[in-house]
Amino acid sequence: MPHLNTVDKLAILADAAKYDASCASSGAQKRNSVGTGGIGSTEGMGICHSYAPDGRCISLLKVLLTNYCQYDCLYCVNRVSSNVQRARFGAAELAQLTMDFYKRNYIEGLFLSSGIIRSPDYTMEQMVSVARLLRETHEFNGYIHLKTIPDAAPELLEAAGRYADRLSINVELPSRKSLGKLAPEKDASRIRSAMAAVRTKIDEKKEKSRHPNPRAIKATGQSTQMIVGADKSDDRKILTTSASLYAGYKLRRVYYSAFSPTPHPSSHLPPQPPPLQREHRLYQADWLLRFYKFELDEIVSGGHNGMLDLDIDPKLAWALKNRERFPVDVNKATRSELLRVPGLGTRSVGAIVKARRLGALRLADIARLTTSVVKIRPFIVARDWVPTHSLESASLRAQVAPVPVQRDFFG
Amino acid sequence: MTAPVSVTLENVASYSEWRTAARRLLAAGVAPERVGFRLASTSADLFGSGPADVAAGTSNKGQVIRVPKEFPALARDVLCHNDDSRFALLYRLLWRVKDVPQLLDNRADVDVYAARRLAKSVRRDSHKMKAFVRFRRVESDAGEAFVAWFEPEHHIVERTAPFFSRRFSGMRWSIVTPARSAHWDGHALTYGDGANRRDCPDGDALENYWRVYYSSIFNPARLKLNAMRSEMPVKYWRNLPESRLIPELSRSAQRAQRAAPAGAAPCLVTAQKLVAEQPGMVTQTMAEPKTLPDLTTSLQQCARCELCETATAAVPGEGAADARLMLVGEQPGDEEDLVGRPFVGPAGKVLLEALQEAGIERESVYLTNAVKHFKFKPRGKRRIHQRPNATEIETCRWWLDFERDIVAPRVTLALGATAARATLGHPVKVMDVRGQAFTSDTGDVVLVTVHPSYLLRLPDRAAAHEQRLQFIDDLRRAEALATSVPA
């Protein structure tokens, strides 16, 4: 292998990590480096230090420790049978690079993942040693997210939890069977058991927090990622899996990553990616499930055959199929009725409920409390507003659906 | 009392200075329409010309003005805005809020709306400063230090600098902006005048690494330039070392997309063939387990029904491989599912206590469930237990039968209806058959009692106590039978 310097490795190992959707740096325990002489802080809210032209936030140095891998997961660019250039960071080298970036305020911290080399335990040990170097040698108080390896020993998982703010384990695919076919070395039960173990550790930590234990884990949450469009699971199946993961393992987030055909793809995979919009609609549906008290069946009923409508958001799709529930009177409706109005988010609903105590709201008031009153108008009644005909009209969808935009060409 | 009043402020964004002025105005009963604020640094009057100055001679001692708790924080944010109307807007708000304390809750109100918009814009600028400041390293006699040039939109240096001292306390740094600068020497935060971009270092060797990272983490299969611009407004670009890459990265991604457009209809034929999914039951061929460890291993691969799709993992039985008494429960619950062991949840505790009272050692019996995966309905962050249906019980009997073959207990005690159905092979009413001894096909004696969770659900304490004693009796009876029945 030719000798690679740090910047070459960075190019290879960041490229290899870009299919991981998560870049969140929020939700860590609040801490800073005042009086410690160290570097770093986490203040609850994550910070996106840059944005790439793909619209995604760059908050963390997201890299693989190595993209050598003995597994052969067909959807993965780093699988053993893939013909990509390989590299491997030394633990000290990566810790130093993280510090160099952090001190220039490029990042909130490190998101480290890895291909499996030698054994799951060996790989996990290497990842933990980077985190340990950062925390102990560099006195780093910033954010660390470790993508843990489900087959590694429980003690290593626990060690990872002591240094990292967030642990994640990818479920990879929505169904157990697809995982068996596309990722032969991975096992859904082992992945979920590892998530269950992390949840149990986080619960224990919450119970013990009155008597802090230096060996207690630092991690306050876990998340996971599901690849969308590499198997034929429909949106209903994906959301069913998400709902059971949220319920079982106290996940902060399930990330949906639209399958990107990788260089040198396996012939067993679809040659085309799913429409990017599908990923977006899944996130919206995920939000409706968690924060808007929608039932899964209601959300899926807005689309067709278990798939969400790609052209309009899932709440609007549901509303258009349940027109008898509208219009809703903004001055009288309950909070949960308001949450079902297309275009009204949780914040706007909160603001409406507070504001209407001081007097009946007019349409102009609603315009100041929301982002787009034009979208909301057909679904509400205000003091000086009643929608006319529009709810029965067949063209309602056309009125409220977004106008297709031409592709944005740069410069 | 209708003459215009002019107030001159020294500082662009000082809450205490504005508050003092506002108190005086309020004490003098000056209505907002009459007041004009001006900054000492600007020559032009922000209101008009030639008004009298109210600051001199008006005392506000003893005057108590009550404002909602939220007002000072809102005012501090608004004052950092660069809009000249901010002082007057806040005074108008103060004037109104003293009579209507809930006013701030009405975000639809024109003044509240305007103030909150200014505050939001300031908070956003401050947040973007935390995000987009880029330090450059400089070497001096005192060691390394870091300097950043930044151009905020509002007066936010003092508001935001403490964040950097909490974060970079072990570094010496300066952030320089056109109007103000902030300095941290490792111990104290100090402020000074603004300066020029020319006064700041113009590069850092690490910026090339950062650009390499930026272009490598970008996924050219997707291009969302508007999303990028709305979160990273173009006005900040000139001080970001990575921004010069954006045009070329975007153009090359567009070229690639034109060659093979993304977002076309997905073609899933090959994957569909590969992952042929049949609805409902899945047939699976598996080697027949001969020992308990074998059984535990192959149980983990079980996909004989759909329950494996949402449960964590199958929960195997545990206990003595040659037990004379086998206890069969319904299915693992929430805790059993997380831990991977049977009877560790609330109902399990009831069972273990009852076993102890019946004088039965836990290690001497074999504990298992009729169904090996947890069946539940997700509700938010909780999993609500669901009863397994007849098909699931029947499908999972495959495993239970192997356990009964391998352990070969003399007595099997079924706890609850599900276990009774699985061990007897047909549905029964628990209360009708409780106490009855069945002889099964496999030769062991089957007894039926209630599931321990039933004892937890009884609302009447006396009844619960009664049932518990009866449950312990059932355990004793099963144990006695297991020791008396010849092998």
Describe this protein with a few key phrases:
heterodimer; A: 411 residues; alpha/beta; TIM Barrel; six-stranded parallel sheet; globular; B: 487 residues; 17 helices
The number of distinct β-strands of chain B equals 16
What is the gyration radius of chain A calculated from CA atoms? 24 Å
Task: Classify the helix fraction of chain B into a percent range.
Answer: 40-55%
The oligomeric status of these chains comes to heterodimer
Structural class of chain B: alpha/beta
DSSP helical segment count of chain B: 17
User: Could you state the order of secondary-structure elements of chain A as H and E?
Assistant: HEEEHEHEHEHHEHEHHHEHHHHEH
Task: Report on the architecture of this protein.
The complex is a heterodimer of chains A (411) and B (487). By secondary structure, chain A is of the alpha/beta class. Mean pLDDT of chain A is 89; it is low at 405-411. Chain A has 3 domains: 6-267, Aldolase class I (TIM Barrel, Alpha-Beta Barrel), CATH 3.20.20; 275-321, no CATH class; 324-400, no CATH class. Chain A contains 15 helices and 10 strands. In chain A, the strands form 3 sheets. Chain A has a 6-stranded parallel beta sheet. Chain A has helices at residues 6-15, 91-103, 120-137, 154-163, 176-182, 188-208, 235-249, 276-291, 296-301, 314-321, 335-338, 346-355, 363-369, 373-376, 396-400; strands at residues 50-51, 57-58, 60-64, 109-113, 143-147, 166-168, 221-228, 251-258, 328-329, 380-381. Chain B has 487 residues and is α/β, with parallel strands linked by helices. Chain B has a 6-stranded mixed beta sheet with strand order 9-11-10-14-16-15, with helices on both faces. In chain B, strands 4-5-6-7-8 form a 5-stranded mixed beta sheet, with helices on one face. In chain B, helix 4 (110-132) crosses helix 5 (157-167). Chain B is elongated. Chain B starts with a strand and ends with a helix. Classes of the chains: A alpha/beta (411), B alpha/beta (487). At the A-B interface, helix 1, strand 1, strand 2, helix 2 and helix 5 of A face helix 4, helix 5, helix 6, helix 7 and helix 8 of B.
